[in-house]
């Protein structure tokens, strides 16, 4: 799906999508059916699990007419076009979503019934302009309680308390306020049949104004998709290479750029890759959506954390057009630096850098200057998302070390990811 040879197919489908949507709109309300994906296909997060969208005309003879639109989450439609042409004004096959997701949706809030919550979820995605099937499928987005503050620390744990995925910290006790239908019965600690792992979102943290850490934000399935996608792209034109500095020293990582190429020697962005002269691959749409979803969730966190009315003032929204993908072996590292080669406008606005960590954990340093001793340290684990924008946009940061053998076993088992850490930083030029 992200292979260059598929781009043509995807672009072709893009036309069909526009046509189908506009024709359908003239006649009737289209119903979009998200078709389940064949397991051999490897999607990217936002549309993960679905290989195509079908637009059906809903009544009369037209119901036989059907357009199947490939939608692999590659850059086949831009988001605006998707929203404005398509808008999902019909209902996304609620029955099948209900079947597959009602448990997940219900579980998330603990109160919604399946159909209502499926619809609610769809509506809210519609409202947000993001059709994030990955989230529907993947029990991923934070619930409305996300970001509520713990009293003492700036740490956010309500998700853990309310969510059925909160394996280790479940406070769901019979006879408490949490379960009023069993009032009066003796208190029984719930037993969790699953070990605490990826959904244990217990410490969403504001590290400093404009710098936030969303712990364990990316689901395992999404991490797998991202590794597979980066691996496929990394083998092709514009893929991974080991860059060097002007003095001939090599960076202690492998790098690949998406959208635009960043040249560490010249410290500037360019259209082509310095080694193979190829244009870098596009950023897959699914990744852009994931980034935007993370920014929205970071906004929730900011809102809960401070009395500021507008979280945009702390962390502006951003639609990425650059992604730098780094792979660190267990000996990899990156010195303290600022990300300052994006456009003046982007830097002036404080448009954030959004960083995804996958694989082995990293000790990440950040501070106001290059002095390692004065820098603060935070552990970035597989699935974590770090954002820095606004007044923290020019924060110094770097990776002091990689923690060997700390990657989730299932991630390694499913992808064959080498020992080391994959990091993707999204930016707007
Ligand atoms: O690997 C990381 O977490 C940081 C990467 C980074 O700072 C960069 O690519 O500019
Ligand atoms: Fe950086």
UniProtKB/TrEMBL annotation:
Binds 1 Fe(2+) ion per subunit. Pfam families: 2OG-FeII_Oxy_2 (PF13532). Residues 319-429 form the Fe2OG dioxygenase domain. It comes from the Eukaryota. GO terms for biological process: oxidative RNA demethylation. Keywords: Dioxygenase, Iron, Metal-binding, Oxidoreductase. GO terms for molecular function: broad specificity oxidative DNA demethylase activity; ferrous iron binding; oxidative RNA demethylase activity. PANTHER family: 2-OXOGLUTARATE-DEPENDENT DIOXYGENASE FAMILY PROTEIN (PTHR16557:SF10), ALKYLATED DNA REPAIR PROTEIN ALKB-RELATED (PTHR16557). Belongs to the alkB family. This is Fe2OG dioxygenase domain-containing protein. It comes from Hibiscus trionum.
